[in-house]
Amino acid sequence: MTQSENRPLADIMRPSTIDDIVGQGQLLGENGLVRRMVDNHKLSNLILWGPPGCGKTTIARALAKSVDMDFVPMSAVFSGTSDIKKAMEAARMNREIGRGTLLFIDEIHRFNKTQQDTLLPYLEDGTVVFMGATTENPSFNLNNALLSRCHVGVLQPLSTTDLMTLMTRAEKFMDKKLPLDDAARLHLAQMADGDARFLLNTIEYLINANFKKVLTPDKLDSAIQKRAPLSDKSGDEHYNLISAVHKSLRASDTDAALYWTARMMTSGQDPMYLFRRLTRFAMEDIGLADPNAMQIALAAWQVYERMGSPEGDLALTELVIYLGTAPKSTANYRAQMAAYRTARETGSLMPPKNILNAPTRMMRDMGYGAGYIYEPDTESGFSGQNCFPESMSRQKFYHPIERGFEREIKKRLDYWDGLRKKLNSKNST
């Protein structure tokens, strides 16, 4: 078997020109960032950011070929500062004979600050055209100095249509038909979840496995290991998913919230993290509009801790539905922020003496507790006495909304405000 035959199908079929690449129209289409580089026959330093199998390496290779530059690939996982310096020396020698070099570093986010800084002088003097590939958000994982010298091209997962096109190309390339019915073909494209490499590797296996019968979607699942949805437990996708859950709940789009919750659970996210965020949502975005929300969040959390999955999954679903359909209010959260802000601004003001305890004679002689009114002994159960510092004007931090239970709270507060004004007016006359 030759070296070429040992290469995986995804590598053998890698497009050599920009025009042959499937998908990424936002970069490769008319007026796209990469298309302009090809049309102008001049490359710029570029960071390619996107999920696995979306074409980052393929685009870099095709760009180097389009302008007839040497393509020097490196991996930040296996390479270090000494490897960079060796590559740069070779690039300098290339430049002396009038030949350009495109340095491509995969997983560039894995380089530390010092390693990233090593690249800067070579980018400044044009020794190489630099292209880096990353699955992580460059703004979080790359130095500002490196980012400022590069364009950033954002790649998207390939669409189901793109993947179906690749499937047809692979069949023509191998001159064999996949052992799949129409439903299974679509299922395979959806299972690939935007990853061309996964799709082509699976196609290669299916064609070479010599299945005797055409596979249905269920048989396909049995024949290959079903791929989990794209996600991670600490990176961009993790925060994208929890943001989608949170924003869907806030919009009272319960069905969308259920979908994003399912995405998190089926991709192996920590259920305890999800319950913690949902409990926070119950306090922060629902609050007293529905006081039961926090109790249901805590109860669902406890049920899951005691029963685990799959039984506890129903408690999570019930919680998401309850939070999605509950009235929303941030009055509780805004009251906290306003009170904390005022507390920081006003310093260490003493409480008014009328609401201080006076356990000793000396404290009573100093006026502690003087004028205190015991509310249950009043006719209305409300005295209107001042509880703010004497040198501070009365503040209003909590502004309930006309929704849910806060409608009732607002009635109580309005009643007490009106009663306080009457009592203060009476006391001042």
Would you kindly provide a written description of the structure presented here, covering whatever features stand out?
The longest helix has 23 residues, at 406-428. The chain contains 21 helices and 5 strands. The chain has helices spanning 3-6, 9-12, 25-28, 33-40, 56-66, 81-96, 113-124, 138-141, 144-147, 160-174, 182-192, 196-208, 217-223, 236-250, 254-266, 271-286, 292-307, 311-325, 331-346, 361-365, 406-428, and strands at 46-49, 70-75, 101-106, 129-134, 151-154. A 5-stranded parallel sheet has the order 2-3-4-1-5. Helix 7 links the parallel strand 3 and strand 4. The protein is elongated. By secondary structure, the chain is an alpha/beta fold.
Task: Supply the key terms.
single chain; 429 residues; alpha/beta; five-stranded parallel β-sheet; 21 helices; 5 strands; elongated
Layout of SSEs?
Layout: H1 3-6, H2 9-12, H3 25-28, H4 33-40, E1 46-49, H5 56-66, E2 70-75, H6 81-96, E3 101-106, H7 113-124, E4 129-134, H8 138-141, H9 144-147, E5 151-154, H10 160-174, H11 182-192, H12 196-208, H13 217-223, H14 236-250, H15 254-266, H16 271-286, H17 292-307, H18 311-325, H19 331-346, H20 361-365, H21 406-428
Parallel strand pairs: 1-4, 1-5, 2-3, 3-4
Helix pairs in contact: 6-7, 10-11, 10-12, 14-15, 15-18, 16-17, 16-18, 17-18
